[in-house]
Amino acid sequence: MGLNACRTQKVSADIEVSNSKRVEYYRPFYESAPYTTHIFALANVNAVYKAASNFDIHELYAVNNTNDSIYILDRNFKNIYLNSNGERTLKGHIKLAKAEDIEKYNTLKRFINNNEYCNLVFSSPKNDNKGIWKVYLVYSTAVNDKIKEQILPLNKLTDIKELTILDLSANPKDSQ
């Protein structure tokens, strides 16, 4: 809903979300997680338009820190788990990124690190877990709770060191 509004140049209430609502929305992803979680929001409505042209809701990348391999995770999260040997045991759920996927991942990282487009709105305390996976999720508070329930099994992934969420919503104008 939010991205369709962006593409038609109409800004809906779903696109502007307060930080407190955003942090509360993502609470199930971080409240009992043994990994560090970072939540980024779009800096302004112009960033929403830029994001809409580059990303889809539910993009999910996993980077293996031991060998820098980049994987794409399936959007069907019902029975997934991921470990050091995940690429062999998750047939159909994880695949090694192709060149175009790696470019999208690199675009995502540049986007997140660009203060003109994104603001860090939440970061859980650092942890010393020995996880090997850095997971990047593109998501939106505009997505209804039923869809959020489908993606919550992400919490069951093992060996995650860090989860970074790019929320495809902007801060309200009066809070910037």
Describe the structure.
With 176 residues, the protein is of the alpha/beta class. Strand 6, helix 7 and strand 7 form a beta-alpha-beta unit. The longest helix has 14 residues. The protein is globular and about 40 Å long.
Topology of this structure?
Blueprint (H helix, E strand, L loop, with lengths): L1 H6 L11 H7 L1 H4 L5 E7 L2 H8 L7 E5 L4 E5 L12 H4 L4 E3 L2 H14 L5 E6 L9 E7 L5 H7 L8 E11 L6
Parallel strand pairs: 1-7, 6-7
Antiparallel strand pairs: 1-5, 2-3, 2-6, 3-4
**What is the global morphology?**
globular
Helical fraction equals: 25-40%
- Backbone CA Rg: 16 Å
| Low-pLDDT ranges | 1-13, 78-83, 85-92
Placed side by side, the strands forming the largest sheet appear as: 4-3-2-6-7-1-5
Q: What order do the helices and strands follow? A: HHHEHEEHEHEEHE
CA distance, first residue to last residue: 23 Å
What does the average pLDDT come to?
A: 76
How many β strands by DSSP?
Answer: 7
Task: Provide the domain count.
Answer: 1
Q: How does the helix and strand content classify structurally?
A: alpha/beta
Strand content: 25-35%
Largest sheet: 7 strands, mixed
Q: How many distinct helices? A: 7
